[in-house]
User: Fold LacI family DNA-binding transcriptional regulator from Photobacterium pectinilyticum.
Amino acid sequence: MSVKKQPVTASDVARLAGVSQSTVSRVFIDGSSVSATAREKVFAAAKELNYRPNAFARSLTTNESRLIGLVFPDSDYPIHMETLQLLSKELQKNGYSAVLIPWELDDQQQHSIPNIFQYRVDGVMAASAQFNTALYEECRDFNIPIVQFARIEEGTKCSSAISDNYSAGKIAARTLVQRGAEQLAYLTGNIPAYTNTERLEGFTEELQSLTGQTPRDIQTSYVYEEALDGIRAVLAEDHHPDAFFCSTDTLAIALMDIARSEFGLSIPEDIQVIGFDDIPQASWLGYQLSTFKQDFNRLAKEAVKLLLNQVQSEDRALVKLMIPVELVERNTLRK
Amino acid sequence: MSVKKQPVTASDVARLAGVSQSTVSRVFIDGSSVSATAREKVFAAAKELNYRPNAFARSLTTNESRLIGLVFPDSDYPIHMETLQLLSKELQKNGYSAVLIPWELDDQQQHSIPNIFQYRVDGVMAASAQFNTALYEECRDFNIPIVQFARIEEGTKCSSAISDNYSAGKIAARTLVQRGAEQLAYLTGNIPAYTNTERLEGFTEELQSLTGQTPRDIQTSYVYEEALDGIRAVLAEDHHPDAFFCSTDTLAIALMDIARSEFGLSIPEDIQVIGFDDIPQASWLGYQLSTFKQDFNRLAKEAVKLLLNQVQSEDRALVKLMIPVELVERNTLRK
DNA sequence: CTGAAAGCGCTTACAG
DNA sequence: CTGAAAGCGCTTACAG
Assistant:
């Protein structure tokens, strides 16, 4: 039955190295006092036997797993794969590993989330995804810290590392006004999000302070196909906006596609557009979209730092970290 | 220091339920014989105390972790996020969880992969990414089964669930010939892959049997920006191909962008194109790309089944599972 | 069906 | 600096 090769243990290494099992254990714990000779003998034996300390046994005594639960994006949003790599690597660098928590489980929703907690994750990273309240409450019950990455879920109270959406909104308004736009609109999807609200707030406040106007707030869908009709309706109006700040690049691209192919509009002559995210498609030949680039690298580093800090210090102070965002100009803004 | 709430254990539950700790343990193991009354008392107590069996303690005795290492894609390829969800859910359904293995670690490459093995993953799923040989060898040393998902790495011997690339190649050739194409080309990136080879083989063999011709094999880069020059060079030729089968949709789109904007070519009148993957962008208004859709849902299910089968049965027979692929026609093929 | 007890592979006071 | 021993929270023969 169990043909599985019997794993080598610290005792095996101890025997070969001629030391006690305790000593072997100490060699693999940073900061333990072990003589240089003992250390060498143990390393040699460990290498010969291909020994790896058993993390499960360790966590049983230390009561920490060095495992972080990762709630990850629900959508195919192109930027997210890289983000996951960044987070995973950053955790790894700090001696932690990421366990995936599927955010949505069709059937046995009740059943599956707790499963993850059988692994006693030390913390949870909610990576730019909606995460359900069951998970949130579970974490609170077990006093497991959560950090939200790149977005903030309504009604939750946890630390977060997000882009400075408010400033992005201000910059977008200022830039568009500078380039001669007269009727500004904010184009967004249908999923309420704190980041979105902030962006609109910055956009609105800056526009008001500059011109006294209030931008139009147009809501449609985040899915390309589903956004099309909403956009059509707006562009069909006699006095449609001449400048759009879009909450995702995909939305901006849907807008460009329709504006050009169905309304014969030129960009940026007839309408100007600014996106958000800088997905790979933003720089495709047919788009050359001016958009905000989020600093995911920094975001990942900071989010991990935030989380591990809470994990290690038991300090549950809430911090909301805002990372600056950069407007990369391509060809959808007038000069 | 350790303010961490002391987790509740099986003994706590046993005390409250008025049974032995063994009985509590049995209640949470499927197939153990426990009386209905005992079971109920334990469930009640467990619920009241919010008890979760400790997976680490379990795996220490059972010698299985119910953890699967997941090597995941290096690229921003849009299709992959969904794939990850599918794999993760499928594992979860079977009582397993996925731990991420960052495929590439800049500095301490040697050091980090073994770290993962401190968690004694029961198996490894290599999800459409290149995975390095260090990991491969590590798995072999520890007798940990690997299944490759959606691609096959050169020089490795493990089971895999992939799309039927060979047939896709044949279908592409047949379709293109049927639609009047005369000079067929296969456009691909610069990373050698078994799946790619198979696709070209099917494409070539079918074309030869149909017309006696051999398709041109054009290699450029998988990255949009880097592919542009190679594509330009081909289209600048006097007698460039009039039909392209592209190994990714991104490549197909780069081709379309250049053909139309720089060479004034119409699609599908002047050139016909077929992509591979059916990424969301393939159905954007400006592209309407005819392309092959991989059945990722089925692929994920089968790959997980394959892997867990190896994990649970110690059966290390190599199986290469091929899932049919579907050509979805849009507007880049003549009628 | 059930309980007492050994054991999984570590860490960590406790002595020395 | 080092070893013997207890203990982490489970599972699993072994008796009953």
